[in-house]
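Thread: "does anyone have the structure for this chain?"

Original post by V.I.:
We have the sequence but no experimental structure in hand. Need at least a predicted one for the grant figures.
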Amino acid sequence: LPMLLGLMPVLSRAYFETVPFERTNLEIPLGTGPYRVIAIEPGRRVVYQRDPDHWGNALPQNVRRNNFETIEYSWYRDSNVAHQAFLAGEIDLQFESDALRWATGYDAPAVTDGRIVLEDLPHGRPSGLLAVVWNQRRPPFEDIRVRQALSLAFDFTWTNATLLHDHYQRTQSLFDNSDLAATGPAMGGELALLEPWRDDLPAELFEAPYVWPQTDGSGRLREQLRQAADLLAQAGFILNDGILIDARNGEALDFELLLSDSSYERIMLPWMQNLERLGVRATLRTIDAAQYRTRTAGFDFDAMIWHWGVSLSPGNEQWIYWGGDAADDEGSRNYPGLRDPVVDALIAQLSDARSYEDLTAAARALDRVLMWGRHVLPLYYRSGDTLARWADVQHSDVTPLYGVDTLSWWRESSN
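Reply from O.Q.:
Generated one for you, tokens below.
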């Protein structure tokens, strides 16, 4: 909680006594940071200028930081246009999230002759959880067998090699890339937290964290699709003219995957084809950000893609992510609709942790229970920041634990 409070911005009471806080405007507010906003073009750019008289300039944590006289952030509606602007020298730094563009889009003279530097800088941030989310408020997703079966049709190994240029790692944990991820059998403090719930949890959970099966990357998922078909049969679904239907009511097993980013379409379509082999009718629907936010905030979806971000100090925010009280709270991030007393108890332990050992034990226990619940289909993550920069923008050889800190960078004059 102290860390969360420390992250909150300090606002001027006197300023907002004269300017209504809830009124939307382009008036530049009074701030406390090392830079001041000096120019705004709505939807295009914002420009900051360093404040030479900033109250924190002499603080130890600010020494050799805030080195740029001005910083400009530019927005582009199309990432490909932004990329071309970077190659043309209109942008100094570009973080790259598109694996295809990272692999094939930087074949340019400025890269060849060293004027542009490509880097993959490792970090120690937990991965968080990028996943397909099943809305368990709607049938048949309340059945763990259905959720697991549909997830087994996703071939990460083939997807990573064929579509993502082996750029990613398979997500297996809420806290991948950190010590907070569950590993091996539950032991010590983690076991002590789980033991009271032994009768409510699968026995295998105590022996190992849940791991999604790996494939050979050939694109042939015979074994996984066989397992999926068995699980769907156990859940009461039968094939009828190639369509999977619920034997109890005759309804077809179909769902809509809601997207706000069209780049996921090429990743999800092969999965949809595998689902079709099972007799499942799945469709993609890509909508704009505003519609996406409205529908997901009201839990109006069958399945969606979401990324839960986490820190090395998880705590109270986990109630909003997974807590039972948030399941019906519109606007919360409990998108799966979890109502699990075991999860609630572990979140309480995590929130109340008073030592690193207690925090780690609670995080690992929560991670283990969430993954064994198969509430989501985990996708992938990276343990580094991929970026391209013009060579005159430079940085230290040491990367902070949380990754790139551009405010510690500087520009090296060519003179």
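V.I.: this helps a lot. The two ends are 48 Å apart (CA to CA).
O.Q.: and The mean pLDDT is 94.
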